[in-house]
Sequence to fold (102 residues):
Amino acid sequence: MPGLSNYTLRVTGPGNYTAERHSERRAPSLRLADYGELEDGIYRWSLSAATSQIERRVGADELARNGRSGTSANLYVGRQMSGSFQVRDGQIIPVDQSVTEE
Fold:
């Protein structure tokens, strides 16, 4: 996606399954089996990234409350897409082709 950076791809599913990858410059991909056994069921994915649009300037007092250091920082407007799929007998089966964007 053009104009985006600092991507996070997260997949969650049955049996406390969680897979997560980060990438600064492009949308990451991952191999589900590398993060644990894939049980049959519904899995949810989300892809988030930062835009180059600045939301507002943050002061040092607010940064301190967020556990960050420094005198000020820009907060960038984020984008997120999400969806779901089903795993049955080790195969990925689409649940719904609609993707939500926030």
